[in-house]
Design a protein that fits this description.
This protein is an all-alpha fold and 341 residues long. It contains 16 helices and four strands. The relative contact order is 0.07.
Length: 341
Amino acid sequence: MKRSFYAAKDLYKYRHCYPVNSLLSSDPKYRTRRLVIFEEIGFLGCMQIMNYKEPRQLNEYPNLRFYLNKIPLVPDGIFIEEILTKWRGDYEKLEHNHTYIQWLFPLREQGLNCYAQELTQDEIKEFQSTREATRRFLLAYTIMLDFFGIKLLDKNGNVARAPNWQDRFQHLNESQHNYLRITRILKSLGELGFENFKLPLVHLLLEEALVEGMLPNMRHSALEYFVYTLRQHAQRRTLLRFSQRHYQPPENFIWGPPKKKQIPGASGSIGTKAGKSEAVERSAGKASSPKKGRNLSNSERGVEDTDEKKSGEWKTAKSSKVLQESRGRIDVEEYIETIPL
């Protein structure tokens, strides 16, 4: 298996607040614009610009107004109270309707429902400060957890198997499109002030997938997507270490640090970094040693010693450069494999 570049890019943008693509693009046509902006306002100023969107009025916050039961979701025309009171346990409706999830769990990115509006920074702040909206948001979260066979235990976000877990886990293992929903739910939790709810949920899903074996089809999505929705690097590292201990077969685990690469020695055999350095030093020493068996005058010997010294220094510099380039290539490979997603 290989890591997904799309997943890495998508989740990196999420964790870093969706920077504007044009400013970060490698396209040459944006080069002058980037240089001018960075020179005038600096890095922090650019970050503020990249996260900026035109402010909306309070009555223009569609996601907040939906959660306040003032407008229905589009295009189905269903209000949030109807979903919270009538959809719990209606697994057929939750499974086959594909327009509600973008309204229940809004993000600062466009989803499949083109009628759902993206969040803005101002709307997020207003949402988090509105008790009625956050209360309904948590109720919507519990409805989806029940749909997956999970129950919310407390206000800290701890979760466990629900009474219906066997049937729901079997369904979840077979309906892999729900993994996209879980990714969206995790992202939305972080956007609306419930970042601490992510770790318990992802840990439970990893345990069921890797240890209990109840969700084997979820292994890749959990490691490629769910883990990397967590914004704290220490939490991601904890989950990856847990997963590495239980992943089978262990040699196929590609989300942790790679095995240390060894550099071929001077003799062609595989050696260590120290062995390579020693080989370079020996080569340099050999190059700088005086030649034997020749009768030279003092002046000739001085000239030749100077030439050999320069030659030895050149060879040493060249060998060091080769070693650095070789080490640089390996550093790049290791960086690609262990990029902090």
